[in-house]
Design brief:
alpha+beta, 14 strands
């Protein structure tokens, strides 16, 4: 297993990713590896124990914290969010949108990305946009209510409780405000106490400033070729995603978390069953996903896997665990959105895509797959 996994990691690096790290478990066998560099300027190598911004993998942690409050009777899954946060979601919307709809992205509230980063207006339908606002917002501190209002003021993307979901970070910032309202503590503290500490994670947490604490890589954003050469965004104020996607972790910690979650050791079996009730949804990059309450379902080569992927500027992560808990993979890369568009604006295949797919195949099933796990190149945050 070790030699072939290392070769697959090396192939990802040689295809164009500066640095890639992974942790894999197959039954009682575990392996971790790294390939490439953490810093293009100095050549400093990546190591498997580095901490990484894991993007929307954060959502599973936030969902688990909400379900724990449901178990304690402080939150009702099918209660209107307006019952808890009438000042943030007033009127008819507050009465129609439930906590469950926020968790499975069927609220109909659009994402705020192109409003918080106005130079990206038109994305993803148009790729001829400017990335200037990525730099403008590097040290900007957003308030959750500010970002929530951006989403609520935009045209809805669906009716509350519709048959399909549309991925939106607004939902998750509302869930963070909900946690704060019912527990009386900041959402990050609630998630840390009730989920991160419960899972026994020693290298996972929300950033206290603009830098990643501990050993980490620089994070290079290409934004579909509009940033050339890719720019380092490892120093960034992560208030633009908060409890939706700001978490920092290691690959070993992510495997530990999902193993314990899917074994019913974080939330109750009944809560886990709710998390695994999926609906078809559309990710921010337009790709279809099967989404539960903070969990993706991925069908690969006849097997079912659960987990989440995520990106923030410069960073991509994928973490998946088999339904039986026997096979796990967590992978992070320090370059993202590497696909350049053609004349019509459609991102084109890149050798990295094939190398990533081969790595997932080797890590999750030990061979060829009939499906694919997706990749962290998309616009999901």
């Amino acid at each position: 297993m070790t030699t072939r996994l290392q070769a697959a990691l090396d192939d990802v690096h040689h295809a164009g990713i500066p640095g890639v790290i992974a942790a894999v478990r197959d039954g009682d066998r575990t392996w971790s590896g790294a390939s490439g560099v953490a810093d293009l300027a100095t050549g400093r190598p990546v190591t498997a124990d580095m901490r990484h911004r894991v993007g929307s993998v954060t959502k599973t942690f936030t969902a688990a914290a909400v379900l724990l409050q449901v178990e304690q009777g402080r939150i009702r899954l099918d209660a209107p969010i307006g019952d808890y946060l009438p000042e943030l979601v007033p009127g008819e919307r507050g009465r129609r949108i439930t906590v469950r709809m926020l968790l499975n992205n069927t609220s109909g509230i659009p994402d705020y990305l192109t409003y918080a980063f106005p130079s990206l207006q038109g994305f993803p339908a148009r790729l001829d946009v400017s990335t200037r606002s990525l730099d403008d917002n590097r040290f900007r501190t957003f308030r959750p209510a500010e970002l929530i209002e951006m989403g609520l003021s935009a045209p809805p993307v669906g009716e509350p409780g519709g048959p399909t979901g549309v991925y939106s970070n607004v939902n998750w910032l509302l869930l963070g405000e909900l946690l704060e309202r019912v527990t009386g503590m900041p959402a990050e503290e609630c998630i840390t106490r009730s989920v991160i500490d419960r899972a026994g994670l020693r290298h996972t947490g929300f950033p206290k400033g603009t830098e990643v604490e501990g050993p980490h890589s620089r994070l290079y954003e290409a934004f579909y070729g509009l940033i050339d050469p890719p720019r380092d965004y490892s120093v960034y104020d992560m208030s633009w995603v908060g409890v939706a996607a700001a978490l920092v972790s290691t690959m070993a910690d992510l495997n530990r978390f999902y193993a314990r979650l899917l074994a019913g050791e974080i939330v109750s079996p009944a809560s886990l069953a709710e998390m695994q009730r999926t609906i078809p949804a559309t990710a921010l990059d337009g790709s279809p996903i099967q989404y539960g309450l903070g969990l993706h379902r991925v069908d690969l080569g006849g097997a079912v896997f659960w987990g989440h992927d995520g990106t923030v500027w410069g960073s991509g992560t994928m973490s998946l665990t088999s339904a039986d808990g026997e096979r796990q993979m967590s992978v992070s890369v320090n370059l993202i959105r590497w696909n350049r568009p053609d004349a019509s604006g459609r991102p084109q295949p890149h050798p990295i895509d094939g190398a990533m797919k081969a790595l997932y195949q080797r890590a999750l099933c030990g061979g060829d797959l009939r499906g694919h796990a997706g990749d962290p190149a998309g616009a999901t945050v």
